[in-house]
Write a structure and sequence with these properties.
The chain has 488 residues and is mainly alpha-helical. It has helices at residues 8-12, 32-39, 41-49, 52-61, 67-99, 103-121, 137-165, 169-192, 206-230, 252-260, 263-293, 297-325, 327-345, 355-391, 396-424, 436-463, 468-487; strands spanning 25-26, 29-30. It has one domain: Growth Hormone, Chain: A. It has 17 helices and 2 strands. The chain has a two-stranded antiparallel ribbon with strand order 1-2. The protein is globular and about 70 Å long.
C-alpha cells in the first residue's frame, strides 16, 4: 500500500458485512477472493460482447443486410446511448446515495443482456443451418438497442462499484486487473466455441452464435448470483466516513458543470475517443477482412483464442508497468502495441504467410487493448476521487456512464466509418472477387486510418494531469475530511 493514502482498518469500518460476504481487504491488500467474486460476472458478459466484433459481418453475409443499413443502425444506436447512458449513470448514483448499493442495476442489466442477446444473435432459433436468411433492419435495430441498454445497466454501475471497494491507486489497478482477466477469459470462451467437435467447421456462423448465447446463459446466472451475494457494497450513505456533503442535492446539471471543470477527465475522454475510434474501425471491418478478403475465416476462432490467451499474460505485464512507471505510461505503451498490430494487417494478403501472420498482428492488437481494459477504468477511478475532493459530490456511476458511452460511441462510429469507406470504394461482402479500388478502400479502413487514430490517442494519454503522486495527496485529503465529519 502507498504511504498514508490507505488505512485498512478505517476501510473495514466502512462495510457492514453480512456473514456470507467476503471481506474486501485482507492484510492491508485487496483479497483475491473478493476481487474475483466482484469480477466473475464479466466472464459471461464478455462472452456475450465477443460476437459484437463479428456481428456486422454476420448480418451482412448471412442475414442479407447491406453495409449502409448496418452502419445506419449502429449510428442510431449510439444516439440512443447518448440519452440512456448518462441517465443510467445518474439514476444509479441516486439509488446508491439512498441505499448504499449498486446491485439492483447490475442484476437487471445482466438479465436484460441475456434476454436481448438471444433475439439479436439467434433471429431464427437453434434450428439455423447457416443458410442465408433475410432479417429486417428494424429487427436488428430493436434488439441491438435492447442489448446495449442491458449492457449499460450492468457495465456502468459495475465499473463504479470496483472503484468503491478499494481506495488506493494501486489497489484500483489490482481490482481492475482481475476484471480484465475475467473479461479475457470470457472472450476466450466465446472464441473457442467454433472449435467444438460437433460443429462442421471452425468458422463463425449463425449456428455458433446460437450456441454461444446458450453457454453464456448457463454462465451468467450463477456467476451473477455469486457476485451479488458475496461482495459487499461500496461506501454506504449510512457510514460515518462517507465523503458526501449531506446538504448538497444530487442534480444532473451540476454534474456537467463539474465534468467541464475536470481537466483530467476531459483529456481522458479525448484519449479514449481516439483509441476507440481506431480499434472500432479495425474490429468493424475485421470479420470481412479476414473472412472475405484473406479467406481465413476457418482460422479466425483459433487466432482469436490464441491471441486472447496471450493477452491474459500481458495483463500481468501492464499491471506491473503501471505500478512501477505509472498508469499513463502503461496505457500509452499498450496503444502503441495496438497501432503496430493494426498497421501490420495492412500488409497481409491472400495466399501470403497465412494465419500465423494474422495471429502475430492479433496478439499485438488484443494484448495492447488489455492495457485499456485494465488502466482506463483504474485511471478514471482516480480522476473521480479528484472530483469528489474538489466538489464534494460523488458521481462515480455517471462518470463511468460517460466512459461507457464514449467507448461504445467511438467503437460504433469507427466501425460505421470503416464500413462506409469500404462501401464507397466498392467493396462487396458477397462478391467472390474484389476490384483493386475496393481492396484499397479495405486497407484504408482496416489498417491505415485505424493505426493513425490509435497513435493520436497516445498524445492525449500523455497529457492527462492525474498521476499516482497527485492521487495520494487527494486520498489523504479525503481521509482527513472524513475524519473531521466523524468528529463533528
Amino acid at each position: 500500500m502507498e504511504g498514508n493514502a490507505f488505512d485498512p482498518s478505517s476501510l473495514l469500518e466502512n462495510y457492514q458485512l453480512s456473514s456470507n460476504m467476503i471481506k474486501p481487504i485482507e492484510g492491508g491488500s485487496l483479497s483475491l477472493q473478493c476481487g474475483l467474486a466482484y469480477a466473475c460476472p464479466t466472464i459471461a458478459v464478455s462472452f456475450l460482447i465477443g460476437p459484437i466484433a463479428l456481428l456486422q459481418g454476420i448480418y451482412a453475409k448471412y442475414f442479407g443486410l447491406s453495409l449502409g443499413t448496418i452502419a445506419a443502425v449502429i449510428l442510431i444506436a449510439r444516439l440512443f446511448d447518448a440519452v440512456t447512458d448518462p441517465l443510467v449513470g445518474y439514476f444509479s448514483d441516486r439509488y446508491f446515495h439512498r441505499t448504499g448499493s449498486r446491485k439492483l442495476f447490475i442484476t437487471l442489466g445482466g438479465l436484460l443482456l441475456v434476454f436481448s442477446s438471444y433475439f439479436l444473435y439467434v433471429p431464427f432459433g437453434f434450428d439455423t443451418r447457416d443458410a442465408p436468411f433475410q432479417v429486417s433492419g428494424e429487427y436488428f435495430l430493436t434488439w441491438f438497442l435492447a442489448f446495449y441498454l442491458g449492457y449499460t445497466l450492468f457495465e456502468t454501475p459495475h465499473l463504479a462499484w470496483g472503484g468503491e471497494i478499494v481506495t488506493s491507486s494501486k489497489e484500483k489497478n489490482k481490482i481492475y486487473s482481475l476484471r480484465a482477466l475475467t473479461v479475457s477469459t470470457g472472450l476466450m470462451l466465446f472464441f473457442s466455441v467454433p472449435l467444438l467437435p460437433f460443429f462442421d467447421s471452425s468458422e463463425f456462423t449463425p449456428r455458433t452464435l446460437a450456441w454461444s448465447v446458450l453457454f453464456s446463459i448457463i454462465l451468467m446466472l450463477p456467476l451473477l448470483y455469486y457476485c451479488i451475494n458475496n461482495v459487499p457494497d461500496g461506501e454506504s450513505k449510512n457510514n460515518n466516513n462517507h465523503h458526501l456533503s449531506r446538504s448538497k442535492k444530487f442534480h444532473l446539471r451540476e454534474l456537467f458543470r463539474i465534468a467541464r471543470g475536470n481537466k483530467s477527465f476531459l483529456i481522458f475522454i479525448a484519449a479514449l475517443f481516439f483509441a476507440g475510434a481506431g480499434t472500432g474501425m479495425w474490429f468493424g471491418m475485421m470479420f470481412l477482412f479476414v473472412d472475405v478478403y484473406l479467406r481465413l475465416g476457418h482460422s479466425l476462432s483459433l487466432v482469436y483464442l490464441l491471441s486472447y490467451g496471450a493477452s491474459i499474460i500481458l495483463i500481468t505485464f501492464w499491471y506491473a508497468i503501471a505500478n512501477r512507471f505509472g498508469k499513463k505510461t502503461s496505457w500509452s505503451s499498450g496503444m502503441l502495441m495496438v497501432a503496430i498490430g493494426i498497421l501490420g494487417t495492412g500488409f497481409l494478403s491472400p495466399g501470403g504467410a497465412g494465419w500465423i501472420s494474422l495471429l502475430v498482428c492479433m496478439i499485438l492488437i488484443n494484448g495492447g487493448i488489455m492495457a485499456t481494459v485494465l488502466l482506463a477504468p483504474s485511471l478514471l477511478a482516480d480522476i473521480i476521487d479528484y472530483s469528489l475532493w474538489k466538489y464534494d459530490q460523488d458521481y462515480a456511476a455517471t462518470y463511468f456512464s460517460i466512459y461507457a458511452l464514449t467507448t461504445k460511441a467511438n467503437l460504433a462510429i469507427g466501425g460505421a466509418f470503416g464500413l462506409a469507406i469500404a462501401g464507397y470504394y466498392g467493396f462487396e461482402p458477397t462478391a467472390s472477387t474484389q476490384s483493386e479500388r475496393a481492396l484499397d478502400g479495405m486497407r484504408l479502413s482496416v489498417a491505415w486510418l485505424p493505426s493513425f487514430l490509435t497513435m493520436v490517442s497516445i498524445m492525449f494519454i500523455k497529457q492527462i494531469p492525474m498521476n499516482i503522486h497527485r492521487h495520494n495527496i487527494i486520498r489523504r485529503r479525503l481521509d482527513l475530511r472524513a475524519k473531521s465529519r466523524v468528529i463533528i
